[in-house]
Amino acid sequence: MQSGMGRELGNLSYEGEAVKGHDVTSLGEADHKFERVKTQLKARLGAEVYSSWFGRMKLAEASKGVVRISVPTAFLRSWINGHYLDQIVALWKEEDPEILKVEIIVRSAARHARATDAGTDAQGRPAPHQSQTALATTMTSNGVNAGKAERMPMQRPATVETEFRQSVLGSPLDPRYTFASFVEGPSNRVAFAAARAVAESHSSAVRFNPLFLHATVGLGKTHLLQAIAAESLRQNPRSRVVYLTAEYFMWRFATAIRDNNALTLKEQLRDIDLLIIDDMQFLQGKSIQHEFCHLINMLLDSAKQVVVAADRPPAELESLEPRVRSRLNGGVALEMSSPDFSMRLSMLQQRLAAAKAEDAAIDVSDAILEHVARTITGSGRELEGAFNQLLFRQSFEPQITVDRIDEILGHIYRSGEPKRVRIEDIQRIVARHYNVSKTELLSNRRTRTIVKPRQVAMYLSKVMTPRSLPEIGRRFGGRDHTTVLHAVRKIEGLSDSDNTLAQELELLRRLINDQA
Predict the structure, then answer these.
(1) CA distance 306 to 239
(2) b/e for 19-50, b at 16 or more Cβ within 10 A?
(3) Residues 6 or more apart from 12 whose CB is under 8 A from it?
(4) Tens of each residue's pLDDT in the chain, 516 residues
(5) CA 11 to CA 17: how far, in whole Å?
(6) Is 56 helix (H, G, I), strand (E, B) or coil?
(7) 466 CB-near residues (< 8 Å, 6+ apart)
């Protein structure tokens, strides 16, 4: 995830293969078309969004109706594919109607090396005065999906709404996540009250700084954090609110450090009014944590608000540096637990009302909703998945019965327990991936072929389960917690510089989530 890069958008490096006959569009022609596409993107999305998501994009190839555009990370490829690909395709087709497909690819290590050898043009980097964080999508007046809203051509003049959009830096906000749509109940009432106090800038909010919310997956942490950001902006459209996931924070800082723009990024973050960090358990890397600690110290000392969320309390985030944990422990930590029956029923009724607004023909009886709410006792995410399955099935089984629902949703019930990744599952899948036995993984053998899989399994156990370091050590043949911590830090350090290892970790995460 984390020197120099090849020439960027301002000075394109054409990475396609040698031109053969008429198969590949000529360099000059492709260059000119790509420049015009970039200009249109910048005009429609604004300089800040453009520099954040497209500042490192290069034209790789244009041949036989297919355009390939390369980006340096899988994260960027995923984000562009999910939010901007339709718009890029439309702009290319305006330039060349014969274009059939636009692909976003990740630059290989070999290409990266060649680009480095070729030298880095400073003009290719985002200008120092431009923001280095992404503009978040805020709620539009008609409540459309955030991703769709970003893909729509922006033809509005620079009005107050535009200023409102540009006052939020960081990861995009989902317009569905507001205080109005949040289901309050006994399991989250205190956290909800604290969140409202922060968002509405009550004088009492100073007692909640930093505010730390923790809960297992699917219990509404992200909903509440984004509601804080949305409400803060509604109260004061000119306030500088930054909502970031820990992974995006790491990526943004790593990119800034690599490009010698860290000072610029720090200056941009210095003037914000409210910092919101989600999924704090994923904040890895000593240097990144050092920068994060400096940032929150600076904001708290300036009486600015900080809100953080994770899947466990600050004291149990062993992968964090002690001083980061200490700073997070200095505020108020509030837990959000599983919703009770009345909350689950309210969530289902809310989802049904939203579905009926789109299709008045949808009808689900109260008895069925109550049965689902009584049976699905895990997270709100599981409840939403059950409701979506119910709607889908009812579209061709109008007279669906309770017994039939039990049949359809049986895989979600799990005796009321949400699905959890187990350390045993991680050990089994990692051992199989590296072609070693689980017994060898837990043994005292220290050969390279065993040590690496063992350290990878320890690292994944730390980031994918709520287990503490001592507990993980016990599950790996009775090892000390310092051995586990060493493995976690070594793997996270190597994954920053070793693209192959980073891809292995991502593959193992998917396998574990799919097969555990």
Answers:
(1) 14
(2) eeeeebbeeeebeebbeebbebbeebbbbbbb
(3) 31, 34, 35, 58, 59
(4) 433 333 333 333 333 333 333 344 445 677 788 888 888 888 888 776 777 778 888 888 887 778 889 888 777 787 888 888 888 988 888 888 888 888 888 876 434 433 433 444 333 333 333 333 333 333 333 333 333 333 333 333 333 333 333 333 577 788 889 998 898 888 888 999 999 988 887 555 556 788 999 988 888 899 999 999 999 888 888 888 889 888 888 888 878 777 777 777 777 787 788 889 898 888 877 777 877 888 888 888 777 888 999 988 887 777 777 888 888 888 888 988 888 888 888 888 888 888 888 877 777 888 888 888 887 777 778 888 888 888 887 777 777 777 777 777 765 655 444 456 788 889 989 998 898 888 888 888 888 889 999 999 999 999 888 888 888 988 898 898 899 999 999 998 888 888 888 888 888 888 887 665
(5) 18
(6) coil
(7) 216, 311, 312, 316
Q: Say if residues 413 and 407 touch (Cβ distance below 8 Å).
A: no
Token look-up 């993984």 returns: 441
Q: Which residues contact 27 (CB under 8 A, 6 or more apart)?
A: 14, 19
461 within 8 A of 424, measured Cβ to Cβ:
no
Identify any residues that bridge with 306 across adjacent strands, giving them in sequence order. 275
Give residues with Cβ within 8 angstroms of 109, minimum separation 6.
Answer: 499
Q: Are 117 and 41 in contact (CB under 8 A)?
A: no
For residue 244, the surrounding DSSP H or E stretch is strand 241-245
Q: What is the 3-state secondary structure (H, E, C) of 102-140?
A: EEEEECCHHHHHHHHHHCCCHHHCCCCCCCCCCECCCCC
List all residues 6 or more positions away from 507 whose beta carbon is below 8 Å from its beta carbon.
Answer: 433
Q: Are 373 and 341 in contact (CB under 8 A)?
A: yes
Q: Rounded to a whole number, what is the distance in angstroms from the first to the last CA of the chain? A: 26
- 41, 88 contact by CB (below 8 A): yes
Q: What are phi and psi for residue 87, nearest 5 degrees?
A: -70, -40
Taking CA atoms, 170 is separated from 69, 115, 126, 196, 281, in Å, by 24, 28, 16, 21, 18
| Measured distance CA(98)–CA(291) in Å, rounded | 48
pTM of the model: 0.50
Q: Structure tokens of 4?
A: 């120099």
- E-strand spans in 320-462? 332-335
Helical pair 246-258 and 262-270, crossing angle rounded to 10 deg: 130
